Amino acid sequence: MFLNCSANTLRFADLPTRVAAAAAAGFTGIGLRVGDYLGAGLSDADIRDLLDHHGVRVFELEHTWDWAAGVDPAEEAMFRLAAEIGVRHLNVPMFSEHPLSELVEPFAALCDRAAEHGVLVGFEFLPYSHVRTLPEVWEVVAAADRRNGGVTFDLWHWLRSGGRPEDLAGVPASKIVTVQLCDVLPEPGPDLTEEARHRRLLPGRGAGDTAGVLRALREHGVTAPVSVEVFSDELDALPTADAARLAYGAGAEVLDRAGYPVPPWRTNLEQAR
User: Fold this and answer.
1) Measuring CA to CA, which residue among 90, 29, 43, 88 is closest to residue 270?
2) Shortest CA distance to 122 belongs to which of 203, 182, 180?
3) Which domains does the chain have, with CATH numbers?
4) Which string of b and e fits 179-200 if b means at least 16 CB within 10 Å?
5) Which superkingdom does the taxonomy of this entry point to (predicted)?
6) C-alpha to C-alpha distance for 11 and 18, rounded to whole angstroms
7) How far apart are CA 13 and CA 19, in angstroms?
8) pLDDT exceeding 90 applies to what percent of the chain?
9) Is the model's pLDDT at 111 over the cut of 90?
10) Quick one: how far is CA 174 from the chain centroid?
């Protein structure tokens, strides 16, 4: 199964440990934060060799910055990784306060810069950010109207933002860049930011109807590739190999139960061949 292990599922493991554990568990891709890349202490050639040795590719790249305020210096590293190692897409939220109408042009500009490297951009809605719901994020993505721009669909954010299947109606299935799997506690905590970053559950192991959401995506025609993203202090406390194995098993099980068709994917470098 073509399944990715998010950077945040094994967030405290060093890069060699993360890649080895993800590959052994069955993942075909990993996610990276820009800090993971810059702090790995490895050359680009060494990272390529590490990934090739384990048969794993970089699926998604994450960096939190106010991209509406202009070009961030970290973009140089982001696009160097794309050029030297390969990546499929960027996941970008928005934590700075801007009216939605003022995000359209900057999002389009970010997509244009990413397009120069063959990289997709998924705008992620988060219920504790300044773009909180699928309709809000789609308003920006639709207005920007970039071929490589779309939506990152995270099940935790969907469930905690009160998402409904009918919200999918206005979003073309092809514009869902990726789906991120996880689950929620029975009741939301008083601080959604804290809960989202420390107390997510493995997909299918919580109170959310994860299989039902996946079926709704499938029925809408979504076939985006999938990542398991579980920020969890409990998962962090386990040996990395055990955490990776549990994450893969839970993700594969809920996908199979929902009948969600997980497609293969390619990095920007593979697309260019």
Assistant:
1) 88
2) 180
3) 3-272 (3.20.20.150)
4) bbbbbbeeeeeeebeebbeebb
5) Bacteria
6) 8
7) 9
8) 97
9) yes
10) 16
